[in-house]
């Protein structure tokens, strides 16, 4: 996806750096053999949930809270204006609660990345909400003997 100011993004939400960040999330998961294109509710697939959530945290850390993306569709829809929740702003805690199973799985598979991102100070960070949640699986499961090298 290229940044644009046309019909797909008339308010100019897409910036080159966040489009690159989004694609780098996909690339990291591919390189680590973690790519999962399973369909989930509200999203094209799990990978788009992961990439958009992490990019939204990146945007929030750069004080671009008006550019948080609500889904993977075009035209660009701001978080909170997605078809499923058109009138309610989805804050970090609600987002974590809605997708906790998938976010927990992301964090357990990319513990090195997610533990650092959870400490990013910004307005919207569902990984921080995850750490603050009493229900989260914060630690990676123990390695099986065959995984120890």
Q: How many extended strands?
A: 0
Count of alpha/pi helices: 6
Shape: globular
Give the % helix. Answer: 40-55%
Give a short account of the largest sheet. Answer: none
Separation, N- and C-terminal Cα atoms = 39 Å
Walk me through the structure.
The chain has 149 residues and is mainly α. Helices cover 42% and strands 0% of the residues. The protein has six helices and no strands. The relative contact order is 0.13.
List keywords for this structure.
149 residues, mainly alpha
Concise structural overview:
By secondary structure, the protein is mainly alpha-helical. It has 6 helices and no strands.
SSE blueprint and pairings:
Blueprint: H1 16-31, H2 46-61, H3 92-98, H4 100-109, H5 111-117, H6 126-132
């Amino acid at each position: 996806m290229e940044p644009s100011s046309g019909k797909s993004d008339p308010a100019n939400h897409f910036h080159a750096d966040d489009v690159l960040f989004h694609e780098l999330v996909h690339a990291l998961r591919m390189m680590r053999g973690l790519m999962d294109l399973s369909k989930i509710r509200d999203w094209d697939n799990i990978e788009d949930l992961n990439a958009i959530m992490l990019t939204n945290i990146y945007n929030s850390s750069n004080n671009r809270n008006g550019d948080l993306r609500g889904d993977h569709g075009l035209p660009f829809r701001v978080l909170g204006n997605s078809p499923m929740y058109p009138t309610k702003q989805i804050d970090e805690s609600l987002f974590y609660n809605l997708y906790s199973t998938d976010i927990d799985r992301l964090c357990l598979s990319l513990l090195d990345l997610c533990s650092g991102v959870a400490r990013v100070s910004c307005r919207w960070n569902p990984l921080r909400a995850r750490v603050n949640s009493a229900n989260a699986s914060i630690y990676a499961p123990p390695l099986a003997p065959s995984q120890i090298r």
